[in-house]
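Example record for the data management plan.
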Amino acid sequence: MTEVSVQTETNRQTIAGAFYAWKEGRAPITDVFHPDMVWRIEGHSLASRQYDSKQQFIDEVLDPFAARFDSAKPFRPITVRTVLADADTVVVVWDGRGITTDGKPYENTYAWIMKLRDGLVIDGTAFYDSISFNDLWTRLQPA
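Corresponding structural encoding:
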C-alpha cells in the first residue's frame, strides 16, 4: 500500500468513525474539528458564510442549532450515505433528523467536504437544503 492510500483510508476511517459515534450519541462531531479549523456553509441559508475557528462555528451555528431541538430527541445523523476519501480530503453525504422544541421533525440532507491534518478537520465546506434550515432558524429561538 502506498503512503497516499494509507493516508486516504486512515482519514476515511477517522471521519466515518466520528459520524457513527455522533449518530449513536457517544461523541460530538466536533471532537474531530481542529481548534483553528475554517468552516464554510455554502448557499443562501441564514448561516451561510465562513467561520474562522472551531469555537466560532460552535458558538454561532452548532450550539444555537442544537438548542432548537428536544434534548431527548436531538439532531443527529440517521443515515450516512457515503464516506469518500482521497488523501487528506473526506466527503460525507448524510441525512440528519431531530425533533424540535415545538415537537416537529426537522430533516435535512448534507454534503460535507473536509480536509484533514493529523486526524483533525482543518477545513470544511457544507452544503444542505437552505429552505428547511431557514425555516427552522426563523421559526424557533434557541432554548
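Summary line stored alongside the record: The mean pLDDT is 97.
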